[in-house]
Amino acid sequence: MSIMNSFPLYILVIAGLLFVFALCLVTLKQARQRALELGLSKEEIMGVIKSSALFSIVPSLSVVVGLFSLQAVLGVPWSWYRLSVIGSVSYELIAADMAAIGAGYDSLAALVEVNDPNVAGAVMLAMSLGIIGGVVGCLLLGKSIQTGMASYRAKSGAWGALVMSCFVMALMAVFVPARSIFTGTIATLTLITSALITMAHRWIIKKYKVKWLSNFVMADALILGMVSAVFWNYLIG
Hints:
Layout: H1 7-37, H2 42-57, H3 61-74, H4 76-85, H5 89-102, H6 108-114, H7 120-156, H8 158-181, H9 185-208, H10 217-236
Helix pairs in contact: 1-4, 3-4, 3-10, 5-6, 5-7, 7-8, 9-10
């Protein structure tokens, strides 16, 4: 943990985040210039910027919650970097856990308990290469996959929509059982609680037409799910 919270790692992470922030500013400038060329007024552009900022900040509450859980096992700077640039709590933990298992430990938790400094680099490398593979794959194959699926959905109608839904469900079926159901009773109850919280949000949004609440679904499910985990652990742990 002294490596994962070291000053040099903080400096490297801050440098990387500043570089990404600079790219965002360049993209914003180019997008604004293009919008002016297309005939949009400065007031309209500013309205879009304000609304986009609002709807970006509110959902990021769930990312902050994820940061607290991730930094407990991977330190602050690296967790900050992974969740700020690209990545998610579940994927990052899976990659880190696989690196720990590959190093001979039963799990990431076992590695953290032993506090082996020799595996820190392997964990960071596994997380980085894992997420980079997805980005490169999107760059090379994303357009053809997207156009192919859109064409199939247009030709197949409802059947095409069903196939896409089944594909998403298949992805969830791979991750959810391994990470939540088979890790213990408390994890299963926490998963069920989070699912019920999500369903309750969706019902309220549909029933009372409060669309703004959709921005808080993930954040509320994460926060209340973590609270329920403490409750279930106290009750049956």
